[in-house]
Amino acid sequence: MTAQPLINTDDFVLNIVDLERYPIADLTQGAGAEFLAACQQQMEQVGWCSFADFIKPEQLEALTGEANQLLPEAEELVIKRNIYQGAANAALAEDNPASKEYTHRALQLADDQLPADTLIKQLYKSDILTDFIRQVQKKPTLYRCEDEFQALNVVGLEPGSWHAWHYDTTECTVTLLLQPAEKGGEFTFLANSRTDEDEDHEAVARLLSGDTSKANILSRGAGTLTLFRGGYSLHGVTEIEGSKPRISAILTYAEEPGVVIDDDINIRIYGPRAKKIIESRKA
Question: In a 10 Å sphere around its CB, with 0-12 CB exposed, 13-18 middle and 19+ buried, how is residue 53 labelled?
Fold first, then answer.
């Protein structure tokens, strides 16, 4: 007899995800096993997977409404950094990307600003979703990040803003697009542009100069879940046009339990509010 997976019937995913199209509740057999194998193959070959209409329409409407209600509480953050999440180092050669500063402006809600009973926080806490993301990457273990700021974020890019080119601090980035821009706001990335040992300097320089001809450009609709190797793929979001913000949720995971991010990175990303919290704790 084939062992059946133990599924938590209270898991939020069972109510919010289109399980007929994306059978993530049981990846051990049948349609679920076939779906998982296809996802794993794509992740291995190109470094990303994207799932349109991952969220059921009625639940997506509730998630989007919730995000629009929360955003007025968000701070507008202006982040200046090089593409490696650090401060620009003018002492380096001019053609070294670490010597250049790029500005990113966004409305950003950190994890500690998202109440536990919000729909997006319940989705992030789903064990079924976490295990699906683990298996797509063929990781032996995967845990939700425990950083007080970075674990789960809701980000609003207003018209006229964009997300500057950067690498993430974790290997795989998971995003859920809640509200696309009316125009623009395209997710653009160089898949696998670096490894732990090296970087495709020519491709990176081309992208930083404005040439996107070799980049992946994903036009995504509301409710699209995307997994990509953000720690190894230089990426950003093109300028937002229209009258409404582009809103996305960023879900962060790690292979080890209890992962938190360096204070200096959190201060650079989340600004004065995070700095005050961190310094108060240290005092």
Answer: middle
> pLDDT tens digits, residue range 8-51?
668 999 999 999 999 999 999 999 999 999 999 999 999 999 99
C-alpha–C-alpha distance, residues 132 and 49, integer Å:
12
Low-confidence ranges of the chain (pLDDT < 50): 1-6
Measured distance between the N- and C-terminal CA atoms of the chain, rounded to whole angstroms: 59
CA atoms within 13 A on the CB side of 23: 14
Distance CA 86, CA 264 (A): 9
Strand (E) or helix (H) holding 39: helix 30-46
Residue with token string 């040992």: 197
Q: Rounded to whole angstroms, how far apart are CA atoms 124 and 129? A: 8
CA–CA dist 184, 24 (Å, integer): 31
Q: What is the value of pTM for the model shown?
A: 0.91
Helix (H) or strand (E) holding 167: none
